[in-house]
Write a structure and sequence with these properties.
6 strands; about 180 residues; 7 helices; alpha/beta
C-alpha cells in the first residue's frame, strides 16, 4: 500500500493519540516532502532516524499496534503493510549532528525532519530517479542552492558516499536547468 499525504497525517494523528508520553520522531526519506505537499508522491514506509528521535520504544510499539501499523518490522512484509522503519547509522548516509525542522505536533507526538539540504544530500548518495525528482522538488520548493548541497556533501563521513553524491548532483543540475 502506498502512503500519501492524507494517510501520513492520519497515521501521525493516531500515533499521537495512542502514545502515553511525549515522543519525537525524526522522519526522513520521502515522507517529509509528502507531508509538506510534494504532489504525486507516495512512499511504502515511514523512515525514522533513530539518533535524532526521542521516544520510549515500548510506548511507541504499543501506539503503533493500537494505530494498526507495524513497528520496525524485520523479514518479509505484506505489500499492503504500513510500518515505521527505525533506521540507525550505517548504510544510510546522513551527516552527523544535522539540524532539524519541526513538521508538526500530533497529540503526544512531535514530528521533525532533517533540513531539506540534509535530505537532498542523503538522497544524492542513493541517486535513484525518485531521489533526483525529490531533490529537484526540494531545490525549487525551498530555494536550496547547489553550494549549500555541496557544503553538506563535505560533511558526509564516508568518502565514497561523498563521491557518489557529487556524481549524482550532476543529474540534479541537469534536470533543474531544464525547468
Amino acid at each position: 500500500m502506498a502512503i500519501e499525504r492524507k494517510k501520513l497525517e492520519e497515521i501521525f494523528d493516531r500515533l499521537g493519540r495512542s502514545l502515553t508520553q511525549p515522543a519525537t520522531l525524526c522522519i526522513f526519506g520521502s515522507s517529509p516532502a509528502i507531508l509538506l505537499g510534494q504532489p504525486s508522491r507516495q512512499t511504502q514506509d515511514i523512515d525514522i532516524w533513530h539518533p535524532q528521535s526521542n521516544y520510549d520504544a515500548g510506548d511507541l510499539s504499543r501506539a503503533c499496534a493500537s494505530a494498526g501499523i507495524l513497528y520496525d518490522p524485520t523479514g518479509e512484509l505484506d505489500p499492503d503493510a504500513v510500518y515505521l522503519q527505525i533506521v540507525r547509522p550505517g548504510v544510510v548516509a546522513l551527516p552527523p549532528n544535522f539540524e532539524t525542522e519541526m513538521i508538526g505536533r500530533y497529540g503526544m507526538l512531535t514530528v521533525l525532519m532533517p533540513t531539506p539540504v540534509v535530505l537532498s544530500t542523503a538522497k544524492l548518495v542513493r541517486g535513484s530517479d525518485n531521489d533526483v525528482n525529490d531533490i529537484v522538488w526540494w531545490v525549487r520548493q525551498r530555494s536550496i542552492t547547489f553550494k549549500q548541497i555541496e557544503s553538506m556533501i563535505d560533511q558526509l563521513a564516508n568518502p565514497l558516499q561523498q563521491e557518489t553524491a557529487r556524481d549524482n548532483l550532476v543529474f540534479v543540475r541537469l534536470v533543474t536547468k531544464d525547468a
